[in-house]
Amino acid sequence: xxxxxxxxxxxxxxxxxxxxxxxxxxxxxxxxxxxxxxxxxxxxxxxxxxxxxxxxxxxxxxxxxxxxxxxxxxxxxxxxxxxxxxxxxxxxxxxxxxxxxxxxxxxxxxxxxxxxxxxxxxxxxxxxxxxxxxxxxxxxxxxxxxxxxxxxxxxxxxxxxxxxxxxxxxxxxxxxxxxxxxxxxxxxxxxxxxxxxxxxxxxxxxxxxxxxxxxxxxxxxxxxxxxxxxxxxxxxxxxxxxxxxxxxxxxxxxxxxxxxxxxxxxxxxxxxxxxxxxxxxxxxxxxxxxxxxxxxxx
Length: 298
Hints:
7-stranded parallel beta sheet, DapA-like, Dihydrodipicolinate synthase family protein, alpha/beta
């Protein structure tokens, strides 16, 4: 088997935006086509039910169907659903749903209803790991207020609870500490605007936002970066960075969906409490996306 088959969380996995109809219902047919289009354009798989997929405002029925739709479209080995929930029991149920749908890995935030201590974090990941599907941790201390520091990640990995980590702290120095403490733990780029820095530091994958709009150029950037073609990578990174940095902003869902609309994909509306971009924000995203289009990056 290839490395990606052994470790299906490696490569470019797109945290998929979720297309909504005008009445804000989920357009599952369009979502299936979007997943297939991403793979056709070089992406290795998708991550449904991440924050970019607005999982927090989906009903349980919608959330389950999103996973099933992605699996039907591109196969379970290419689908790594987010299974985050307020409690370990609910997160475990979502991991079971993913497993039963045919997924071969899941992505899990730490407990995010309160500021959990280390023992609670370990118990949380243990409970979900017992489902039998490999778990990739998602470190997002900005939103969860729980920081999976390298020392804690090493403990989680040593116990067999996690196989990789989506690193969204923005602190690229952590890559080297993680590699020292847990050399077999796969580091995944978690924020689009530190892609080059983490790729150079040895990342094995990218849980990505902007490939929703610009998959081919994003995949080219990733492979150039991880393969050490820094001349190509730097040029693409500089051209794409005005867009990539939106992935780390509060309005990232709206920004990426707008870019999708501009390049001819359906981004569309967002569910409340998210609101549309402010006019100056929309103008900034529009200008950067149109510049990327003019440069032949779509």
